[in-house]
Amino acid sequence: MNTFINIMDKYFTPVASRIGGQRHMVVIRDSFATAMPLILAGSVAVLLNNFWGALDALFNVELSSAVRGAIPWFFELNGIVWWGSFAILSIFIVIAVAYRLALSYGEDGISAAVIALAAYFVHLPQMSTINGEGAWGWIAVGNFGPTNLFAAMIVGIVSTEIYVRLVKRNIVIRMPDSVPPAVSRGFVAFVPALVVIYTMGIVSLVLSKAAFTVGSTDVNNLLTLINGFVQAPFMQLGQSVFTVLIISFFIPLFWFFGLHGANIVAPIINSVYLPAVLENAEALKNGVAMPNVWTSVSWDAYVHLGGSGATLTLILAIIIFSKREDYRAVGKVGLAPGIFMINEPVIFGLPIVLNPILFLPFIINPVVLTAVAYSVTAIGLVPPTSIIIPWTTPPVIGAFLATNGSFAAALLAMFNFMLAFLMYIPFIQYSNRVAIEKSKV
Questions:
Q1: pTM here?
Q2: How far apart are CA 272 and CA 270, in angstroms?
C-alpha cells in the first residue's frame, strides 16, 4: 500500500493539481458557482409549479387542477421567476466567464464581460418566422437559456482571450491621467472591443452564408455549430454509465490524496451534467419525457451521502462499531456537518487522506452507489433528477426534492445509504484490530 501511495503521490497528484488549477477550468467552475443563485431560484420555481402533478400521480387525486383554478397567480409568478433565471442562464454564463477570466489575468473584468456579451449577441439568429413571414430582429428565448451553455462558455473564453492579449500588447488607446478612470477604461477597451466584435461578426456572416447540414444538424450560426458538434456529443458521452462511473471513481480518489475532488471535476460536471438537469427541468415544465438519466444532482441525491465517499454512513459506522477513541471523537464532531453534506472534518480529521485502511471503501463506495442509482433510474423505477437542490440538503430529503417529490427516489437514497453503511462496517472493525495490535507493541 505504501508503494502505491508513493507512486500516486509522485505521478498522479502533481498532474491532478495542475488540472485543478488550470485557469479556464477554475473560471468555468467559479462562474457556475456564481450563477448558482439563479439556478436554485429557477429550480424552486419549477418545483413549485410541478410538485402538484407528482401528488396527483401518487395519491390518484386532481390536486394540480384544483390549485391552478384556486390560485392561478401562483403559477404565473413561478413562470416569471423561471423567466428571470433559467431563461437567461446562458447570458449570465457569458458575462461570468468573461469577467472571471479577465480578472485572472489582472485585467478589467467589466469591460471583458460587456465585450463578451456583445460577441454572444453577434451570433444570435436575427430572423424569425411570424405569421408565415420572415421578421428581422426577433430572438428566440431558447438562445438565452441552458441550451447554449457550451456556446456561452466558448464565446466568453475566446472573446476574453482576444481582449486580454490586445491589452497586454498595449494595442489600446491610452488617455491622460487627468481623464476619469471610468472614461479611461472605456477607451482602453475600444480597440479590443472593435477587434472582438468584428471578428465574431465575420464568423457569424460566413456561417450564415455558408450554411450546411450534417446528419440532423442544420448549421447556420456558431451556436448551432457548437451545439451540434461539441455540446451534443459531450452530452451523449456523459450519459454513458461508463463515463458516470469514471467520474464517481475519480472524485474520491482525488480526495484520498488531499485534493478537492469535487472542485477538480466541477468544470466537467457543470459543463455536461448541469445542462442535463436543466434539460430535464425544461422537460418537466413542458410535461414531456425527461431525456437524461444522470445529472449533476444525481451525485448529491444518491452517491455523496454526507459528502464525497458517502462519509455520513462512515460516521454512523464509527459511532456504532468503532472502539477507537480517536475515530469516535472525530465521528462525533463530524456528525452535524455530515448531515448537511460537509465532510472535511472527517476527511482531514480521521484522516481519510492517505489512510490505507479506509482507502478501499472510500473509493469503491461511490462507484457501487452510482451503479445502483443509475441502473434503477435507467429502467424507470425512479424518475431522473430534474430539480437543482442546494448541495447541503440532507440525504434522502435531497433525493425526494430533486425528483419533484418522488418517494421511490427517497427509498433509493435510503437503500444506498444502508448499502454504504454496510460496506464501511468491516473496515471499521479491521481498524479496531489494527489499533489493538499497535497498542500491544
A1: 0.83
A2: 6
